[in-house]
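Q&A FORM
Asked by: J.P.
Topic: structure of DUF3558 domain-containing protein

PROVIDED:
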Amino acid sequence: MHRSAPRLARILACATVPMVLVAGCSSGSDNKDKKNTGGSARPSSPSASPTVAAAKFSKLPDVCTALSGKTVDQLVPKAQNKKGKALPSADTNTSASCLWTGLDGFKYRSLTVSLKLFRSDPGLGSGDRRAGEYAGQQSSRAATGKVTDAKTEKVAGIGDEATSVSSKEKKDGDEFRNQTVVTRTANVVITVQYDGAGYEKEKTPDAAALLKDAKSAAKEAVGTIAKGSQSGT
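REPLIED BY: S.T.
REPLY: Here is the structure written out as tokens.
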């Protein structure tokens, strides 16, 4: 097809300029198309707001009822307060802890159950994911500090995921055995801390037996969450 001289000269000139400038060498038809469209792109529609899965639980049960009286008797013989002592919390619907301590002869036991609920938030993520991150932090925290010989293991069959941390600690010359079980059930994290010591001539408690009891308590608390927590977003 015959090309006009001015148009042919324009094409040849564009072929010799650096690539960075090629965008400026557009054909007349291209400019015409831009004029027809007003020379500007249409504004894009706003993107949809991010969504996250609704959290399973929206409220915690009374933390001091997380374990039955029978369980408390078994784990903390002669507890000072069988009903437990609720520890201070700004909002017991999302964070709560209960403590039991007892001295049977020279056998000392201390049991703490802590509950932490995470709601789903578009900016922070789903309640389940946030709870999983917190559970990991709790496990790491249990293995640090003044404790020694910390041993961390994954535990099957308790909630959606669970981790145990076994350690030793010396307080005022007495040997303590500490067992912590951190469990996540949906968007709630349950932390069971079970410690024992033998005063005077009493033997130091068996770590394996303490861990078995701590796991049992964590499993019971998972069941309490399922029964006593309200579902919602």
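FOLLOW-UP: The chain is about 25% helix and 30% strand.
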